[in-house]
Amino acid sequence: MKVLTINSGSSSLKVALFDMKSEKRLSFLEVEKIGERVSRMIFQKETVFEGEVKSHFEAIEIVEDFLSKRDILKNFNHLFAVGHRVVHGGEKFKKSVLVDRDVMREIERLSSLAPLHNPANLKGIEAVLKKSSKVPQVAVFDTSFHQTLPKEAFLYAIDYNLYEKEGIRRYGFHGTSHSYVAKEAAKIVGKSLKELNLITLHLGNGASAAAIKRGKSIETSMGFTPLEGLVMGSRSGDIDAGAILYLLKKGFDFESLDYLLNKNSGLKGLCGVNDMREIEKRIDKERFREAFDVFCHRIKKYIGAYMAVLGGADVLVFTAGIGENSALVREKVCSGLDVFGIKIDKEKNRNGQIDISKGDSKVKVLVIKTDEEIEIARESVRVVSKIC
Q: Residue ranges of the alpha helices (H) in the chain?
């Protein structure tokens, strides 16, 4: 039973192939610079194709040809399913769904909420449909895991008509990652997910936190867009809306504000660098230390808030690029949190262990490598199996 997962960007295609009987990853390919004069495909950090790739459909053809020549997959018609990452499902999609024309139209309609992502995600679906129309396709939404948020958590305190007519509310993102690491954490501590309260921290260039009560997301840091919440690589996270109004008065227009908040804020805005590895190398310099401290302070603040919302947590999880690899960030974030029963063992933390908790820590602190692709593959099997 082979399942292909696709994460389609505006000019890229990330493809993973799994044997779902063993959940073994058979292959991971990335096609870059689609539509540009010179595109390339990478397999195991090696460029295996270089040339012009005009469209996502051509990228799919190159992927299929590569997998066939390596005897990994004869062709797409031999797939059990294809699972797609789709960023925004709005309020319509509370779970992963089998893709049909109605679903595709709804994903397109929701593009106004995620103009940089949904149209690109749709290109991947259309390319597979054109290539192998009989293979079941499943849309797995970043937002669907957070559809369990209670109304008091997702409503903004603005004119209620803007929620009813425009859909302005908290949606949350990174849901596939939060869902995956929550399940893995339950396995590690040897309990059912329904028995646990968890705080999960997805810390990468994009960063978000989630409060998960008995397996359901009840609060998350990203909001109407992926801009709200934690400090990120180049995104501001939380900022007073009044500051934006002030900048409008000062002559900033939509494009300049969009660039500022999404591309030139966060760590990059504070110190000129959005790579935490580079910041840690220069942490003895004031601006880099300040950026590091602001990043960690915001995370710590959210942990405190989520401890209150959950009524205490059993597990704290660090994941994604920074969460998995920066012992310094984990140590700084957890410093002083013993008031909540959170204590980490510095040696375990620095030695790359999964469980970095001290023996007397009331909260398990875990470092879990996220795997959004296998979560998408699992969801695809679940959805397709229901109709077979």
A: 56-69, 101-109, 118-131, 151-154, 160-166, 175-189, 241-249, 254-263, 266-271, 276-281, 286-310, 320-325, 327-334, 346-350, 372-387
